[in-house]
Amino acid sequence: SAVISQKPSRDICQRGTSLTIQCQVDSQVTMMFWYRQQPGQSLTLIATANQGSEATYESGFVIDKFPISRPNLTFSTLTVSNMSPEDSSIYLCSATGTGNSYEQYFGPGTRLTVT
Amino acid sequence: AQSVAQPEDQVNVAEGNPLTVKCTYSVSGNPYLFWYVQYPNRGLQFLLKYITGDNLVKGSYGFEAEFNKSQTSFHLKKPSALVSDSALYFCATLSYNQGGKLIFGQGTELSVKP
Fold this sequence. Notes:
The complex is a heterodimer. Chain A is mostly beta strands.
């Protein structure tokens, strides 16, 4: 299994600012994803982070608001831009390992509060 | 479109009793099904999966799930619940023709009382 770390674990930010969340995996993975989760609620996929190319965004999410980078097979960043209180949420990074296990592993999440 | 549904927002069980957390799926083709658990203020942890093979799948922490094709269900079970099993449980299916993304159910809060 892959171990995933995220930084920061939590942050309180002012509206209008931007925050970049980092996701590091301890082994090479094929797919990396970014999700958003309201506490106690289900997960909503923001985008698939593609290595060396633009991320693939889900309906309702755009690159200008959530720019994503994935410079190599073990690292990705998600930026939440021009934040508003509606962006307050938990942001989770996940990854699928190599091979055909289909298991997806999750980071501990970043709890973001926008004031 | 592929989806999973968890009909119960909350399940309450007494410690030592068997527990069941329900999940039904709507998938075209062969379903790839998963269960995840989320403890308070933690990320999701993988419990078990069904890809193919035996309908009864065993996973972590004594959990198991039964794949039932006729009922399109994949219920999570444990013979004897522990207080420490109290958490949020998610059923998910893999959209393998859409880049391998997971589609999650709405989650079921399991509460095990001593």
